Amino acid sequence: MNGQTPMGLAAAAAAAVRPCRRRLLSSASTAASKAGPGAGTPLFPRLPHPYHPPYGRRLPFLVSAASQSQASQTGPATPPTPSPVSVPSDPRAAVSGNLPFFDRVLFPDSFPLETPPAEEDDAAAEAAQADEAVAPATPVREETEIEREAWRLLRRAVVSYCGEPVGTVAAEDPECTETLNYDQVFIRDFVPSALAFLMRGETEIVRNFLLHTLQLQSWEKTVDCYSPGQGLMPASFKIRTVPLDENNEGFEEVLDPDFGEAAIGRVAPVDSGLWWIILLRAYCKITGDFALLERVDVQTGIQLILSLCLSDGFDMFPTLLVTDGSCMIDRRMGIHGHPLEIQALFYSALRCSREMLVVNDGSKNLIRAINNRLSALSFHIREYYWVDMKKINEIYRYKTEEYSHDATNKFNIYPEQIPSWLVDWIPEKGGYLIGNLQPAHMDFRFFSLGNLWAIASSLTTPKQAEGILSLIEEKWDDLVANMPLKICFPAMEDDEWRIITGSDPKNTPWSYHNGGSWPTLLWQFTLACIKMGRPELARRAIAVAEERLSDDKWPEYYDTRSGRFIGKQSRSYQTWTIAGFLTSKMLLENPELASILTCDEDLELLEGCACCLSTKRGRCSRRTSKSHSG
């Protein structure tokens, strides 16, 4: 950007961030209280660049129902000419006022959103009255008692930094005296909270979260004198109050991030940066706050995350190579290598970044690398991770030790690896993406998050996405049962559990990450169901959860094969359990909002295949993907 490298911009960002912390002296507090809004100046200027068409149009779900009704009566409308982006000074103004979407979402009896009065001329007022005459306002559904309780608990979990909300703690359990790291704001945990606030029209907390975590990206981070690559986002952060001097006459609030140096196993959070990019896109799409997206520090943050993920290495595959415990499953569970969850989030983050990056001389090479990786990654996952009855039968008949360019068994998978449980478990119709793939190793476990996010991001073909939901419906008693949704299936037991987990007392069979049931996965399941036109499946799962969550005090996870027991080490009032439930309900009520998170099938990726394989060496991703989707 403007000839500067991401490294140079990151250094500038780091230098500008340090003085940002406000001192909480009594005199300073008094002065701040007297200061009017908008007194502060932005850390970075806006990035000047030409108008970018995708961001000059109002999003489809923000178009009034009346306009759609009129269009259906008068025939197809001519697409309007895009106009330059108009960014409101207050991001909340982009999502407040008379937008019919928020008229349906906001509940007037609780937590009303304060918005400035809209300034309309006479013509606009007459047009609004005409719209109301054509399409009467949609009645607002009254909140249930469980939803009201969930909102109260979610707001109780909000934490502030220098007087501004910046996130929600992982859990606010008044009965638990040992907080561990549950009093911190985790990036992955905050995502469902952010979505709930965004869909309710409360955008300030999400904006603050995005900017403050971006500042933490440039902080120095070391483990035993070794520093990981630039671009790494923290797993979590905590707000601490520290004295300014030895006399304790003044204090300041500081953000204390954890990049993995304090985590169990000292593992870097690979998924944090990917979730940050996904949330940034959702925020910008729902608010229209594209001034934030154009900022130099935001563009630099995206580039640093992608540069870290796209860096060259020894790997032969387009998938990301990570260690065990680098994502939601943050303990030893045998997912090291190329776990599906990371690949699905990686693909989604690449798709989101391609939409948000400003095209200039400094970003052209990065965008080209993104396109090449997207093409290779989609082919790799669709072709090699997908299993159904036909594919498993094919693996069962594999020849091994093939040395040639046109080998069928490219990863030298031994048929004996097919587990006995899978032979009887896989249904005749449907299939899923396996959990991991490496040379001579396929992890046949079903991992819910990876499969659901593969649907949401269109990493799967439409046919594969339908197959995954068909499998979940067919195996409902295994994957949902008494509480949605199994984090993985089946659980590791006996010697397998002892060897792979190291006899982890928390990941015992059918508990926690080892086959436990996690209610927070409900919102991702709802998102996938809406995208595939199967909302009835999501309603069924939400009804199951709604019967128990409030009575059970909103636990983090459930134990046993059918999810009957509250987890033995589960925290109560887990924030992403609460937020996941609210987000699921709001998505079902406003399914058009799914578009802020999902990606449509991109046929250009298949046309632009970068595999460079001749017909003698292997099949092209373009042909393979088309054959799958047919």
Describe the structure.
There is one protein chain. The C terminus is likely disordered. The chain has a 4-stranded antiparallel β-sheet with strand order 6-7-8-9. It has a 3-stranded antiparallel β-sheet with strand order 3-4-5. It is globular and about 75 Å long. The chain is α+β, with helices and mostly antiparallel strands. The protein has 24 helices and 11 strands. The two termini are 42 Å apart. Strand 4 and strand 5 form a beta hairpin.
Brief descriptors of the model:
4-stranded antiparallel sheet, 630 residues, 24 helices, alpha+beta, 3-stranded antiparallel sheet
Radius of gyration: 25 Å
Biggest sheet layout: 4 strands, antiparallel
Helical fraction:
40-55%
Report the count of strand segments.
11
Structural class call reads: alpha+beta
The number of helices is 24
* Intertermini distance: 42 Å
Low-pLDDT stretches: 12-120, 130-138, 612-618, 624-630
C-alpha geometry: globular
Strand content: 5-15%
Instruction: Going across the biggest sheet, name each strand in turn.
Output: 6-7-8-9
| Overall mean confidence score, pLDDT | 81
Function: Invertase that cleaves sucrose into glucose and fructose.
Catalytic activity: Hydrolysis of terminal non-reducing beta-D-fructofuranoside residues in beta-D-fructofuranosides
Protein name: Alkaline/neutral invertase
Biased composition (Low complexity): 26-42, 65-76, 125-137
Structure summary:
This protein is 42% helix and 8% strand. The strands form four sheets. Strands 6-7-8-9 form a four-stranded antiparallel β-sheet. A three-stranded antiparallel β-sheet has the order 3-4-5. It has a two-stranded antiparallel ribbon with strand order 1-2. Helix 1 crosses helix 11, helix 9 crosses helix 12 and helix 20 packs antiparallel against helix 21.
